[in-house]
Amino acid sequence: MDASFQTQNPMSILSRLRLDRENWFICYDCLGENDHDEAKAIFHTKAAKILVLGRPIQQCPRCGKNNTKSFAELKAEGRDSTVWGLERAVKKHPRQQFEVNDSPKSPGLSQDNPTRVGS
Ligand SMILES: [Zn+2]
Asked: Is the distance from CB of 96 to CB of 103 less than 8 angstroms?
């Protein structure tokens, strides 16, 4: 009889963590390849997702595979301890370590000069 309960979650924990969970991801392939070192499997990106079997999936910028899941998804699945552990790993490292995608480190490169395929 308390159907309204689920929409009235206290936000205190969320605001304390201040992570935009929908933009944080874990790559299970990278996790496996790095001896389950979460710091090497977590990434943060706001890049557009790709559709895999009709579901939007974030492509891993490290390995290029799609075996990823956002913190928000994990949270939605009720895997709170997993999310907690991942966020703990995030806080232990400088943030730029996880921003694999949107930190172009080649400022001197020849402007925006796309190579066109075909003639
Ligand atoms: Zn990966």
From this structure: yes
- What Rg value do the Cα atoms of the chain yield, rounded? 18
DSSP 86: H
| Ion ligand 1 — residues with CB < 5 Å | 27, 29-30, 60, 62-63
Residue 100, CB-side half-sphere exposure with 13 Å CA sphere: 19
What pLDDT is recorded for position 50? 93
**Distances 24 to 9, 44, 46, 55, 95 between C-alpha atoms, Å:** 21, 5, 9, 17, 11
- CA 78 / ligand 1 centre spacing (Å): 23
Instruction: Name 111's Cβ contacts closer than 8 Å, sequence gap at least 6.
Output: none
Q: How many angstroms is it from 18 CA to the middle of ligand 1?
A: 24
Mean pLDDT by 10 residues, the chain (119 residues): 51 60 96 96 94 91 95 96 95 91 48 54
Please report the sign of the dihedral spanned by the C-alpha atoms of residue 41, residue 43, residue 48, residue 54: positive
